[in-house]
Design goal:
single chain, 261 residues, alpha/beta, 7-stranded mixed β-sheet, 10 helices, 11 strands, globular
C-alpha cells in the first residue's frame, strides 16, 4: 500500500484515483492514486519499466492512441474527469502540455516552430500579435536572446539543449496550465541539463509541473514532491526532502541509495 501523506483537499490541480492501465494482458499501472498540487514540481522516479512514462502519458490522454490500451480509474483536472466523454481531448491536451525525452522540433524555422501551434489553435492572424506571442514564449523558455537574430533559420541548427528549450517554448506558446516533462534532460550534457532544470524551477511560478526522471539527484534538486513507482505500483509519495531523507518504506530507501534499479 502506498504511503501518501499529501491528503489535503486544498490547492490541487489534478487528482488521480485508482488508476489502472493495461496494454492487452500487460498490467502496467495498478491502482495508482496521488494528487498534484498547484504551482509545484512533482517528480516521478523508479527503475526502468516501472511505468513512469506510461503514467505521465495518462495525464493528458496520450495513451488513448495506443491500440489495445485499457484505462480505468479517475483523473480529475479541477474536479472534472479528463476521461469523461463530455470533455474535448484536444482541449485537455491544450491545457496539459508535454515535453518529450528527446528534443523534437518540427522541420521548420525557429519562428514557425512556435507559430505553428498558435496558428492551428486559432490564434490571431495578426502578424504583430503572433510575433509578440512567439517572443514571449521564447523569453519564457530562456531562449530569446540566443535566437532573436536568426528566427528564420532551421530549428535543426540549434544545439540539443537549445532544441529542448525550443520545444518547451512551443509548449508554453498555447498557454497550458500544466506541463508534463518525460525525462527532458536524458539526451543532454550537464550544462544543458543545468539550464533546463533552472528553467523548470522558474516555470513553476506560473505552471504546475510533473516530471519523469531517471536521475534521482535531479528529482532531489528541483522537485517539491516525489512519487516512487515500482512494477506499476505507487510505493511512496511525499515531500521530496522527506522522501529522500526519511523514506517510510525500506524498498524506497533501497532504491534511492542505489541498492537496486
Amino acid at each position: 500500500m502506498v504511503d501518501n501523506k499529501m491528503n489535503s483537499e486544498n490547492g490541487f490541480r489534478m487528482k488521480i484515483k485508482n488508476l489502472d492501465l493495461c496494454y492487452g494482458n500487460n498490467h502496467v499501472l495498478k491502482k495508482v492514486s496521488m494528487d498534484v498540487k498547484k504551482n509545484t514540481i512533482t517528480a516521478i522516479i523508479g527503475p526502468s519499466g516501472c511505468g513512469k512514462s506510461t503514467f505521465i502519458r495518462t495525464l493528458n490522454r496520450m495513451n488513448d492512441i495506443i491500440p489495445g490500451v485499457k484505462i480505468q480509474g479517475n483523473i480529475q483536472l479541477d474536479n472534472e474527469n479528463i476521461y469523461s466523454d463530455k470533455l474535448d481531448v484536444v482541449e485537455i491536451r491544450r491545457k496539459i502540455g508535454m515535453v518529450f525525452q528527446k528534443p523534437n522540433p518540427f522541420p521548420k524555422s525557429i519562428f514557425e516552430n512556435i507559430a505553428y501551434g498558435l496558428k492551428i489553435n486559432g490564434f490571431s492572424k495578426d502578424k504583430n500579435r503572433l510575433m509578440e506571442r512567439v517572443k514571449e514564449s521564447l523569453e519564457a523558455a530562456a531562449l530569446w536572446d540566443e535566437v532573436k537574430d536568426r528566427l528564420n533559420t532551421s530549428a535543426f541548427e540549434l544545439s540539443g539543449g537549445q532544441q529542448q528549450r525550443l520545444c518547451i517554448a512551443r509548449a508554453l506558446a498555447i498557454k497550458p496550465e500544466i506541463i508534463l516533462f518525460d525525462e527532458p534532460c536524458s539526451a543532454l550534457d550537464p550544462i544543458a541539463t543545468s539550464k533546463i532544470e533552472e528553467l523548470i524551477q522558474k516555470l513553476k511560478k506560473e505552471y504546475t509541473i510533473v516530471i519523469v526522471t531517471h536521475n534521482m539527484q535531479q528529482a532531489a534538486r528541483i522537485s517539491d514532491f516525489t512519487a516512487f513507482l515500482m512494477m506499476g505500483e505507487l510505493i511512496e509519495f511525499d515531500d521530496t526532502e522527506r522522501l529522500f531523507t526519511k523514506p517510510a518504506k525500506k524498498i524506497t530507501e533501497d532504491y534511492i541509495t542505489g541498492r537496486f534499479g
